[in-house]
Amino acid sequence: MWNQSKSLVLTAWWIRAALVLWLELPLTALFLREPAILVLFYLIFVPVLTALYGLNKMLRNIQRGVVFAAMNVSCLRLVSWACFFAAVFLLVAACLWPMLILAAGGIGFLGLFVRVIKNMLAEAISLKQENDLTI
Questions:
Q1: Tens of pLDDT along 36-71?
Q2: CA distance 62 to 36
Q3: 38: which of 86, 87, 98, 109 is 20 to 30 A away, CA to CA?
Q4: Which contiguous run of DSSP H or E holds residue 91?
Q5: What phi-psi label fits residue 66: left (phi over 0), alpha (psi between -120 and 50 degrees) or beta?
Q6: Angle, alpha carbons 50-95-89 (nearest 5°)
Q7: How far, in Å, CA of 70 to CA of 103, rounded?
Q8: Within its chain, how far is the Cα of 53 from the centroid?
C-alpha cells in the first residue's frame, strides 16, 4: 500500500534524477550552434540548480522528521527566488523568442505559489511555537 514514506522516497529519487540530468545538460548544450540559446541556458542553469538544491535539502529535513522548522522556510524562500530569477531571464529572452513569455509566466506563477506556501509554513511555525509555550 502507498504511504507517506514511499512518497518521500519517490520524490527524493525524482529530485536526484532531475539534478543529475540538469548537471549533464551543460555538456550537451556545448553542441548548440545558436549562441543566444547557449547564453540563455547558462543564465537559467544556476537558478534551476539552486531550486533543485533547495528542494532536496527540504526533503531531507522532512525525511528526518523536521517539518515545522525555520530551515524549511529558508529552503522555500530560496526556491521561490530561484523561480523569480529564472522567470526574469526567460522574460528577457522573450525578446528573441516570444513563446518564452508563457514559460516566464508559468515559472513566475510557480515562484508566487512557493512564496505563499513559505508564508503559510512560517505562520504555522509561529503558531506551533506559541502552542508549545502554552501550558
A1: 777 888 889 899 999 999 999 999 999 999 999 999
A2: 39
A3: 109
A4: helix 70-93
A5: beta
A6: 10
A7: 30
A8: 8
DSSP state of 33: -
Long-range contacts of 12-19 (CB under 8 A, 24+ apart): 12/56, 12/59, 12/60, 12/63, 15/52, 15/55, 15/56, 15/59, 16/56, 18/52, 19/49, 19/52, 19/53, 19/56
Among the listed residues 47, 48, 61, 52, the one whose alpha carbon sits nearest the alpha carbon of residue 121: 61
The three grid cell numbers given for residue 127, joined into one nine-digit string: 503558531
pLDDT in tens, 76-132: 999 999 999 999 999 999 998 899 999 999 999 999 999 999 999 999 999 998 888
